[in-house]
Design brief:
- The protein contains 19 helices and 24 strands.
- It is α+β, with helices and mostly antiparallel strands.
- The strands form five sheets. Strands 1, 2, 3, 4, 5, 9, 11, 12 and 13 form a nine-stranded antiparallel sheet that branches. Strands 15-16-23-19-18-24 form a six-stranded antiparallel beta barrel.
- Strand 15 and strand 16 form a beta hairpin.
- Helix 9 crosses helix 10 and helix 16 packs antiparallel against helix 17.
- The radius of gyration is 32 Å and the shape is elongated.
- 45% of the residues are buried.
Length: 641
């Protein structure tokens, strides 16, 4: 049997103080993060009872990281000054006096997202430990996270930054489009174990320098908000210069300009390869709409009509959920009317709420015909009697529409409302949450405010998902006084079933209201912890996500609150919470080698199944800053590693 003699520690042999790959841009290629080596091992090689050779060696464990861009996720900021025509002889002399001028703000905030891969983090630790054993050692190396903790912290910090774009209005008779968004990066760790030393056999010394093995894992991903737009596009849509030309030629010139814009848009869409890309823009948004109808009119050849006054559209209210729309084609040719999703219905009575459609409709109008259409659930039907149109309220505090409310359909200038409307249109099931989502955006509505006006109301679980939709689609800054009122820590007292939404809202509250979150979580730790048993499907992940994210914060009060949450988890649910990543927020605390913080992390492990933290704590054992903490860790492990 081999005989090993070793010292029970590893020591740094290379710490690269300037090795963090983030300094405004990511460095290409693998970046060394430092190395450690074990003390000397002595291994006797026997044949039967006879020693034939003795190995004298140590192990060297080195770590590299690679931060790699994998894709970009984009959306469009759109502004149009819509030319009314018949004022200027040429576009070169146009000013915005000939336009229906855009007055909407084109302000959009993009915030990145950090997503740790806790399963791969645990796998990296496990494989590093196994390499030490494969090399003939008996002590695990310092955890990979100690080597990369600073780089990973920088990566997380960059992911949480936000960029606010404030696009200027387009010029006269023109459209301006900015393509903005995030780049997606993966954070990979690669560890290598070497065996270095010599073999003595019959007085002959033979060098040993061998790679025992390597491991590589993707331990985190991030969406990083980009400082500059990916692309900027300008397009002129002028109808003034057509006044001196025959109408047929004028329409063709105008149509050519629209075709140029559509060609750019289709090229943009075709260049997207991410199925989860979320922009919310459709070509309808880029086309000029008439002031009189707010809809897009096409002729029998499918060309967009520069003058749609031959179609009359009238809208009458009914209640908060429906209205009636009547369309009349006054010409002797067939027309097709497109009502884009998110079209605004502006009430003549300013004390009554404005509304918006939440489905898109394409309606054929025979010559001289009057039709009523149903726009609901994506279905469009021509009827002989008025049929309600599905819509949503844009002004929560104003009075509800009634049968005498008259509306004028207008082109939607607010891209946020348009994107939320399309979310509703694409959904398989619609309900009160569609209205609540719009109110969060337009009125900064809290859960209580929504439920005072909606019957039936919505749950905190649903509200968390709606907050995430608004943040993702509308680009609002929830750190402002208008929106931060929506981020109530008590929302976390209900189990969230949408993992991305929960991660976003916990990070948002931790960033924006750290004091409120730490106070609420400390006071309600037992209540939140019980969710892990009351909902066995989603509860453990809910509790684990809160514990992990609070553990990743630099705020000591948030860390303490997260540890209290872990300590409050019922014994029957601790295995499930640990399996869902609840202990992974402690990894970075142990990596910091701060005595007080490390002590808190060890306290959090008490009572959890040893197997759920064995690899992590074994690897961190030698990095603990004093003997007292190492003794505490040894007790948790059932003996020093």
């Amino acid at each position: 049997m081999p005989h090993n003699i070793c010292m029970t520690s590893w020591v740094p042999i290379a710490v690269l103080a300037a090795s963090s790959p983030w300094s405004g841009n990511f460095i290409q290629g693998w970046v060394p993060q430092g190395s450690i080596e074990s003390r000397q091992y002595q291994n006797q090689i026997r044949e039967g009872n006879r020693v034939v050779a003795t190995e004298f060696f140590h192990l060297e464990y080195s770590v590299e990281i690679l931060i790699e861009e994998t894709r970009k996720d984009t959306l469009l900021l759109i502004c149009q000054n819509i030319c009314k025509g018949k004022k200027h002889k040429d576009h070169s002399v146009c000013d915005t006096s000939c336009d229906d001028r855009c007055t909407d703000s084109h302000r959009h905030t993009i915030k990145g997202k950090y997503t740790p891969n806790t399963d791969q983090m645990r796998e990296a630790t496990s494989q590093a430990n196994q390499l030490a054993i494969d090399g003939g050692g008996t002590v695990s190396p310092s955890d990979w996270s100690h080597r990369v903790s600073q780089a990973l912290a920088d990566f997380r910090r960059e992911a949480r930054k936000q960029k606010t774009f404030n696009m200027p209005h387009a010029g006269a008779c023109s459209a301006r489009i900015w393509e903005v968004g995030t780049k997606h990066f993966t954070f990979k760790v690669r560890g290598k174990m070497r065996k270095v030393g010599y073999i003595m056999s019959q007085g002959v010394r033979t060098p040993i320098d061998a790679v025992i093995g390597t491991h590589m894992q993707t331990v985190a991903e991030a969406d990083i908000a980009q400082e500059e737009p990916f692309d900027k596009h300008e397009s002129a849509n002028c109808r003034c210069k057509l006044v001196e030309k025959p109408q047929e030629e004028a329409n063709q010139i105008w149509q050519d300009e629209i075709s140029d814009l559509q060609e750019w848009f289709e090229e943009f869409i075709n260049g997207l390869d991410d199925e989860d890309w979320f922009d919310g823009a459709t070509f309808d948004e880029l086309l000029p709409f008439t002031d009189s109808t707010g809809v897009l009119v096409q002729d029998d050849k499918g060309n967009t009509c520069p003058d749609s006054s031959d179609v009359i559209v009238e809208c009458t209210g009914s209640n908060l959920n429906q209205c009636f729309v009547e369309m009349t084609n006054t010409c002797d040719e067939e027309r097709t009317v497109i009502v884009p999703c998110g079209t605004v219905a502006e009430c003549e009575d300013k004390s009554t709420q404005n509304m918006c459609t939440i489905t898109r409709a394409q309606v054929p109008l025979p010559p001289g015909a009057t039709v009523w259409v149903m726009i609901s659930g994506g279905e469009v039907r021509t009827m002989t009697a008025p049929i309600p149109v599905r819509w949503a309220c844009l002004q929560m505090s104003k009075k509800e529409p009634g049968p005498n409310s008259k509306f004028k359909l207008k082109r939607n200038r607010d891209s946020g409302v348009a994107r939320l409307s399309r979310l509703s249109e694409k959904a398989r099931i619609r309900g009160p949450w569609d209205q609540a989502r719009v109110w969060i955006y337009t009125d900064h509505a809290t859960l209580d405010e929504v439920n005072k006006r909606l019957i039936p109301g919505i749950s905190a679980t649903r509200y968390i998902g709606l907050l995430y939709d608004v943040a993702r689609a509308c680009g609002v800054d929830f750190g402002t006084n208008q929106y931060n009122r929506c981020l109530d820590p008590s929302l976390l007292g209900s189990v969230a079933i949408q993992a991305d939404a929960l991660t976003w809202v916990v990070n948002a509250i931790a960033d924006i209201k750290p004091r409120d979150l730490s106070s609420w979580l400390s006071a309600n730790a037992a209540k939140v912890a019980m969710l892990a048993t009351s909902d066995t499907q989603y509860g453990p992940t809910h509790v684990a996500t809160i514990a992990r994210i609070t553990g990743e914060q630099n705020n000591p009060d948030l860390r303490k609150a997260g540890i209290k949450l872990l300590q409050s988890v019922p014994e029957s649910a601790r295995s499930a919470v640990a399996q869902a990543g609840g202990l992974d927020g402690l990894r970075m605390i142990l990596a910091e080698r701060d005595a007080a913080q490390s002590g808190l992390a060890l306290d959090a492990l008490v009572g959890y199944p040893r197997e759920s933290f064995k690899d992590m704590l074994s690897a961190a054992y030698e990095a603990l800053p004093n003997d007292s903490l190492r003794s505490k860790a040894a007790a948790l492990l059932g003996g020093a590693p």
